[in-house]
Amino acid sequence: MAQSHPILNRLVDLQQTNFEVVDVQVKEEEIIWKIRHKKEAIYICSKCGENVLQCHDKKWIELKDVPLGNKKTQWLVERARILCTCSNNVRVEKLSFRSSHHELTKRFVDYVENVLCTKMFTVADVARLFDLDYGVVYKIDHEVLRRLIQLVQIPDPINISVDEKSFKKGHSYVTIVTDCDSKKVIWVSEGNEKKSLDQFFLVLGPERCLRIKTVSKDLWKPYAASCTEYIPQATQVADPFHVVKRLNEAIDQSRKELSVGSELQVSKRKTISNMQWVLRYKQENMKPKHLESLEYLAKINEPLYNAYLHKEMFFEFFTFKPSEVKDAEKFLIAWIVDAYKIGLLALQEFALYIERNTDVLLNIVITQRSSAISEGINRKISVIKSMAYGYRNIQYFMLKIMQRCGVLGSLWTPAAC
Ligand SMILES: [Zn+2]
């Protein structure tokens, strides 16, 4: 190609630079663009940003660019080394179209960022899609999220929900605050201690704290202490999602105790051991074979069968209207008394937990808070966890939660040069 063509320069966004396309090779699987300095080029020092007229030497470097259809795109770029007065060393010139951290064009990084932020693609998906190294895409993702988090402003929440989520198989935790009205995660911090939630209230400031009306949460004690200190005016509501989760865990614990350490026959213990999921289903959702095994359970172990029925009955608590709060209280007390009578240790512990937190439970009825928000967020975070092959970096995990369950992704714009 004797002369550069303006259309080609426009295709690779070189119009505003000191560079031009001098050749394009179209091969079976890739397109190679050869890019050189314009004849009277001025070089930009990568250290001080000043223009430099003299070049020390030139070298060809390779940059990957956005693929064209099913063809990969490679840029071969002539890069100068210069002697700038800002330092006595030889410096490379600044290339405005090159990404600052990777051997990629900046517009390619922008494109990858856009896909990562606005589509439901995993890092692995994007790495495969663009034939890039997993580590490179991971770094791009982490970098863009760190940049976007700087732009996030916490809205003025009125009703919030606080939750913890485990990281690295329960070895460490993060604290998550959701705005119940917008249904978006607005805060994530490390740990599940009082200070983890304190941080949120401190950032929010006393004025906005005072405007919070309700906080729903797991009855995890450190969170209650933080809420009492910073938002004493807010009604503390038990999160129905966690109450049900704990109840299911209590039933499951009873099942485990009976299937391992009890005096039951081995065959019966085995049957009980396999009933984990049956005991989770609501009776109305059960298939005939599940109903059968439930009937069998009634024959071989009455306490566990009764515990299951008693669990089913608990859901009635969530159907009371605010005007029926007295009836709801009576229901709860009767439920607790009957739970003790069944005689299973784990269920008794659950009953004790309910007994100690009756007020915050009754606030569920008063505020009509449902478990939908917590369920939704928990489901999304489980997806985030399963999509990443084990998050090793807790900061990245926290950013991903803010992206997938909050507003982070929608804030995306290309980085300024
Ligand atoms: Zn310089």
Can you describe this structure?
This protein is an alpha/beta fold and 417 residues long. The chain has 3 domains: 1-98, no CATH class; 159-238 and 385-411, Nucleotidyltransferase, domain 5, CATH 3.30.420; 254-356, no CATH class. The protein has helices at 6-11, 106-118, 123-129, 134-149, 194-204, 206-210, 221-230, 240-260, 266-273, 288-300, 302-314, 325-342, 345-356, 358-367, 372-387, 394-405; strands at residues 19-26, 30-37, 43-44, 51-52, 55-68, 71-83, 90-92, 159-167, 172-179, 184-190, 214-217, 235-238. Strands 1, 2, 5, 6 and 7 form a 5-stranded mixed sheet that branches. A 5-stranded mixed sheet has the order 10-9-8-11-12, with helices on both faces. A two-stranded antiparallel sheet has the order 3-4. Strand 5 (55-68) and strand 6 (71-83) form a beta hairpin. It starts with 5 loop residues before the first helix and ends in a 12-residue tail after the last helix. Bound molecules: zinc ion (ZN).
